[in-house]
Amino acid sequence: MKKLITLSAAALTALSLFSCGSANTPGSSQESSAVTSQDTGSPAPVKTSASDFRTYVSNTYISTGSNYCVDKAESVTYRAYFPVEEAGELEYKFYFSNTVDSTYDDGTHGHVGQVGGDYTIESASIADGGTSVEDEITGRTPVTFSGSEGKTVSAGETFWSDPVTFDVPEGHFLVWEWTVSGENIPATNMSNLTKTSADYGDGKGMVYCDQLPLPQLIGAKRDVKYQICAVGDSITQGCQTEFMAYEFWAARIAQRMGSKNSFYNCGLGWSRTSDIAAGGDWLSRASQADAVIVAFGTNDIISGEYGGDGGNTADEILGYLRTAVTFLKEQGCSVIVFTAPPEDYRENMEAVRSEYNQKLPGLCQELGATLFDFASYLSTEEDPAHALYGGHPNGEGGQIVADAFAEQFSTFLSID
């Protein structure tokens, strides 16, 4: 059951509240689907019981969705380090989707709704990465699938691992490691956010790798007050911030919320509002949360929808946003929409961003969503088009945004 969220007056009374998701919630026991995909050719998602997503909530603010495809892997071992939101001994369970969530660049290396190929999980494990990537990795513990150490994954399949109990000491990293073989495997373009590597079996051992197949949810059985999810582009994912500093706005908010809430980062580089509106597994996963932050606009303006003819107009972006927010509200989610941030655009693109931001309050009021004026904290009144902290806001910008968000939603999200 989703939890009722009580808003403070400062959090805007326009945000309507619902209890649990309706019978047609994606991932419910009736296994019904999300919004029909738009021109992607992808199947509607069919998932396991929504109760799994309520029981096993995100335990890291590093995004592990997919916006890329590994063309081919032959017994490649992939490794990634994850800071955890709650340390200690917890029961973990990992969720996987063999379909690409969002579009990367022009879609050549991965696009929304792209169905992954058949692949084989040869083995998987989690471990204690210590407090530094220089520390020895200890406590490797197998992750199994229906009691087996490996699994054959079908095109478009979604599945969970078996639960596994593991202890991550305070301040330590959780290390995910698995060996896979196959073609067209959905992956995350990590953009140097955390330590990632791969062993290609060529005798060179673990070497730098930035495109990794990963679980779509690093889930843990945690007693949390609220589950918060953020969907967005590279600015949400945290790209181009300092390596392993976890200083981007989503991480800053998650850190402020502590272990009493779960923060599920579903930001993906190059993604657009049209990607989330396509109604695939990405939107379905997000809809399991109590509250969803929706933060898009940049790539919509620059690139537009996958397979389209270029950047979108303000009204086109608002149309895609309407589709996604309407679905989330129907599933019982509270929704917070961010304005599109400054990007030092050329005049024609800045005009689109300005029009979009001007019309956004009206749409939010109509749909019962709350507006957060993200852009205003990243620019000045004198020069609203200038990205004061960079097109991908740096750590200073991330802290300013997190402080403003905490002030507006402190009662809502129990932020200290």
Please render the helix and strand layout as text.
Elements: H1 50-55, E1 56-58, E2 68-83, E3 88-97, E4 119-128, E5 138-142, E6 151-153, E7 158-160, E8 164-168, E9 173-189, E10 196-199, E11 207-208, E12 211-212, E13 217-221, E14 227-232, H2 234-237, H3 249-257, E15 262-267, H4 273-277, H5 281-286, E16 291-295, H6 298-302, H7 314-330, E17 334-338, H8 347-367, E18 370-372, H9 395-413
Parallel strand pairs: 14-15, 14-16, 16-17, 17-18
Antiparallel strand pairs: 1-13, 2-9, 2-10, 3-7, 3-8, 3-13, 4-5, 4-6, 4-9, 9-12, 10-11
Helix pairs in contact: 3-9, 7-8
Task: Walk me through the structure.
This protein is α+β, with helices and mostly antiparallel strands. It is 22% helix and 26% strand. It contains nine helices and 18 strands. The strands form three sheets. Strands 2, 4, 5, 6, 9, 10, 11 and 12 form an eight-stranded antiparallel beta sheet that branches. Strands 1, 3, 7, 8 and 13 form a five-stranded antiparallel beta sheet that branches. β17, α8 (347-367) and β18 form a beta-alpha-beta unit. Mean pLDDT is 89; it is low at 6-48.
Keywords, separated by commas or semicolons:
single chain; five-stranded antiparallel β-sheet; eight-stranded antiparallel β-sheet; Rossmann fold; 416 residues; globular; 9 helices; alpha+beta
